[in-house]
Here is the input.
Amino acid sequence: METQTKKPRRERPKPVKLTDAAAARLGQIMANADGKYLGLRVGVTNGGCAGMSYTMEYASDTKPFEEVMEEKGVKIFIDPKAILFLIGTELDFVQEKLGARFVFNNPNQTSACGCGESVQITPAEG
Here is the structure.
């Protein structure tokens, strides 16, 4: 009888990565939040002049079929309808002279509107 050896299971890549700056800022925000939150929920929604907008909100529970991951100490909940649009995305926190903001660096983004509030995203393949 031949014995089969199991191949090591390859870890699935994380759909969203955080820069150190984003992880640090999110950690501060979560620590100072009014209420008990599990982490950050990210997704995309239809709307805006380019077709889609990124969403971010506190996550106080896990919704059915959500992708839940942890990156640099921050728990991230991803809307299942958004996974294909967000694969490979890096979330950054940028401080500029007149303000600070979170930025989605998404390889699936094909264009953005002039105001920068909405984007056009093509789902990732395979």
The chain has a mean pLDDT of 84. Strands lie at 16-18, 39-46, 52-59, 67-71, 74-78, 89-96, 99-105, 109-112, 119-121.
